[in-house]
């Protein structure tokens, strides 16, 4: 019987991140970024994280060809941890024989949970009760029936507070606790600077405070700016917190662990499972970035603390309760 594992990561952007939609549009900017269709909140697609992690893991292992579309140059891809983790296609006999396997890790989209916004008291990180709870945070002392023109704060304030251009009344003080694995310096720096708003206005606050830059194309012959080649593009700003999940579906169950000293892996523990291969690639995004504009100072994302991990079936008993998986009591889970 296959054993499925799930990891939930907390990321923080170190630079602006631009994951473009691949085209121009008429509107606020020329080059827009990927958004959730229903909420219009920007996100980082799982395909971007998957591709970057594969490329960087292949470089770490010393087989950059494992990141390509075909893997004919790899003699035995079954023994290559990168090919095993992310899948491969190998042709032989002049292309007559094709051997292909899909990957054993599923990488899902990274969604914004806390977004930095300028205010009268300095930068605050805006989120919602629903997004934080869904990501595994504990939010307590939420008043019932708080109005949509009110903001809940993790610090004491009775006067109205602006979130960018939007002024909201103070709705009281709440407490937001992160899972133990995420309570590191980056989280500690912002846990008392959080502002919670209703989900209905969260997308407006985010989209009104994205980073927007202007660039111009350069003529390679003259080294000067091209005439009428000015364009704008948007990005998720620095210090945004996002969460993403990855799931291990090792249907093949043939992964061979990699020792710490093999291929100069920068890990004392080596790679004991496909999740370790993926984790190594994700951590290198803090150095090399993801998305577009990488040579212009964009794209670096850091993993905050250690990921939350669970095996499938861990919460089976809780899932059978009337409150559902991981729930406590109906009163404590009631949404305002």
Explain what you see.
With 336 residues, the protein is α+β, with helices and mostly antiparallel strands. Helices cover 19% and strands 31% of the residues. The protein has nine helices and 20 strands. The chain has helices at residues 46-61, 81-86, 129-134, 185-188, 199-208, 274-283, 285-288, 316-319, 330-333, and strands at 5-13, 20-24, 31-33, 43-44, 87-92, 97-102, 105-107, 110-117, 124-127, 138-140, 150-153, 161-163, 166-173, 175-177, 194-196, 211-218, 225-235, 241-248, 301-303, 308-311. Strands 1, 4, 7, 8, 9, 11, 12, 13, 15, 18, 19 and 20 form a twelve-stranded mixed beta sheet that branches. A hairpin with a 4-residue loop joins strand 5 and strand 6. The longest helix has 16 residues, at 46-61. It starts with a strand and ends with a helix.
Please give the structural blueprint.
Blueprint: E1 5-13, E2 20-24, E3 31-33, E4 43-44, H1 46-61, H2 81-86, E5 87-92, E6 97-102, E7 105-107, E8 110-117, E9 124-127, H3 129-134, E10 138-140, E11 150-153, E12 161-163, E13 166-173, E14 175-177, H4 185-188, E15 194-196, H5 199-208, E16 211-218, E17 225-235, E18 241-248, H6 274-283, H7 285-288, E19 301-303, E20 308-311, H8 316-319, H9 330-333
Parallel strand pairs: 9-15, 11-13
Antiparallel strand pairs: 1-18, 1-19, 1-20, 2-3, 4-8, 5-6, 7-18, 8-9, 8-18, 10-14, 11-15, 12-13, 16-17
Helix pairs in contact: 1-6
